[in-house]
Write a structure and sequence with these properties.
CATH architecture of the largest domain: 3-Layer(bba) Sandwich
Radius of gyration: 22 Å
Structural class: alpha/beta
Bound molecules: flavin-adenine dinucleotide
Largest sheet: 7 strands, mixed
Distance between the termini: 55 Å
CATH superfamily of the largest domain: FAD/NAD(P)-binding domain
Number of domains: 3
CATH class of the largest domain: Alpha Beta
Strand content: 25-35%
Helix content: 10-25%
Number of strands: 25
């Protein structure tokens, strides 16, 4: 390994070239920060939207619908004075803002003043969902399906079953249909779809049956995938012939780098602790985008990147360090994750924050936030798994730092 003689050394290193990473680089450069490098493990930059040719990007950031590639082209046009290095995987983050990269030439250690992790999210595999059966070819995620079809022009199978009913699952049946691959069925563990109800219309138009309260019990194959067996909660069994299965959604943050590093992780979620400015337990490392809130829309991640870039430009100019108390935000397992998941508060200044979260189960009712025993927020919300819920303007007053405390979100 080469130590500190690297051409790659920079002031701000951004790991991941999706909308979040590009947004952060753009705002940093526009605010006068020099020597910014984006490191991307793939050959091309742009992250997930590069493979998503649906008109579902740009609505929030540019007030008009765009395909993923058009959205990336547009945001890249504004991203000037930034070095972009592709085909480089970052394989470890260390203290003192150093990290290791793997390139075609070998391994290197790189030094930066600040590191931004913008590594995105991935869909859960069949193994993470504990699906048994054979392991033939033809089992992919939606992201891989879209890469096959839109980037490589390949048609990996002829008829496929989609597991899940999140927004991305409907994106999967639409992609299959456009590629002239028959979407055989959608399989949902619950009694209703996870995405907003109107998404069912797309399945109806494309004549794709949705099997509710059902799950895969077996994957049948000899050499190639032949069929899946499913069973409903009431014991009804079916065999669906198919040569492809798409395990869609159930996103998890791509946080392998953080998990293997010195960064403190929220034990409930294994996501790094981040405050309202995306700062981790290490002042020199921030984490943004889908890595910390899988899976929000591309526009949200881009706008978040822009905000972080502006914040960081000021912080680097002032050379400040984080000294305030670190207070975790706690919640039940019905909440998948919150952003932020901790707050820094000193014993002199009040702070007003917003907290965003996603739920794993439907909840309509009161959401309460308690801080140091006091209720600081109480409002009714319709919490749906597909929806990002924002609790706005939560005022946190200074507290006695000798009283170890937490912020708690309760459904009551
Ligand atoms: C299949 C699918 C369909 C979607 N469809 C839509 C849609 O229609 N509309 C919409 O608004 N949103 C959609 N989304 C969500 C949208 O793509 C994300 O919100 C957005 O891409 C997140 O941006 P990001 O920058 O956080 O991460 P990503 O776009 O995921 O980018 C992360 C980047 O980091 C790189 N990376 C990861 N680890 C490393 C490493 N160790 N070293 C170097 N590079 C690394 C990855 O290669 C990737 O390029 C979809 C997501 C998926 C998965």
């Amino acid at each position: 390994m080469t130590d500190f003689d690297s051409d790659f050394n920079c002031d701000v290193a951004i790991i991941g070239s999706g909308p979040a990473g590009i947004g952060a680089a753009t705002a940093l450069a526009e605010r006068g920060v020099k020597n910014i490098t984006i490191f991307e493990r793939e050959e091309h930059i742009g992250g997930i939207p590069r493979h998503t040719k649906h008109l579902t990007f740009g609505l929030v950031a540019f007030k008009r619908p765009m395909t993923g590639p058009a959205f990336i082209k547009k945001i890249l046009a504004r991203c000037k004075n930034v070095t972009i290095r592709t085909n480089i995987s970052v394989i470890a983050i260390k203290q003192d803002s150093t990290f290791e990269v793997a390139t075609a030439q070998g391994l290197q250690t790189v030094k930066a003043k600040h590191i931004i992790l913008a590594t995105g999210a991935r869909e859960s595999t069949r193994h993470a969902r504990l699906v048994s059966g054979m392991r033939p070819r033809g089992i992919v995620s939606t992201a891989a399906l879209q890469q096959f079809i839109y980037s490589f022009g390949a048609r990996p199978f002829n008829q496929a079953v989609v597991v899940g009913t999140e927004l991305v699952s409907f994106s999967a049946i639409w992609t299959l249909w456009r590629a002239k691959i028959k979407p055989v069925a959608m399989i949902e563990r619950n009694h209703r779809i996870t995405a907003y109800r109107p998404a069912v219309l797309l399945a109806k138009i494309l004549r794709v049956p949705i099997y509710y309260n059902s799950q895969i019990t077996n994957i049948e194959s000899i050499n190639t995938l032949k069929a899946v067996s499913i069973m409903s909660d009431s014991g009804v069994k079916q065999v669906l012939n198919c040569d492809g299965i798409i395990f869609s959604g159930k996103f998890v943050g791509e946080n392998s780098l953080a998990v293997a590093s010195h960064l403190l992780l929220n034990p409930q979620t294994d996501i790094p602790f981040i405050d309202e400015n995306w700062q981790t337990s290490d002042s020199d490392v921030t984490v943004i985008g889908n890595a910390v809130h899988p899976a929000d829309m591309g526009d949200q991640c881009y706008l978040e990147g822009l905000k972080l870039g502006s914040f960081l430009a000021d912080k680097l100019a002032q050379n400040t360090v984080n000294s305030a108390e670190f207070i975790p935000i706690e919640h039940s397992s019905d909440i998948k994750m919150t952003t932020p998941n901790m707050v820094r508060l000193d014993n002199e200044t009040s702070k007003t924050i917003n907290i965003c979260f996603h739920v794993s189960k439907i909840y309509w009712g009161l959401v309460t936030v308690k801080f140091a025993g006091k209720t600081v927020y109480k409002k009714r919300h319709r919490c749906m798994p597909a929806r990002r819920i924002t609790l706005k303007n939560i005022r946190l007053d200074p507290f006695d730092i000798n009283d170890k405390t937490s912020i708690e979100i309760c459904f009551s």
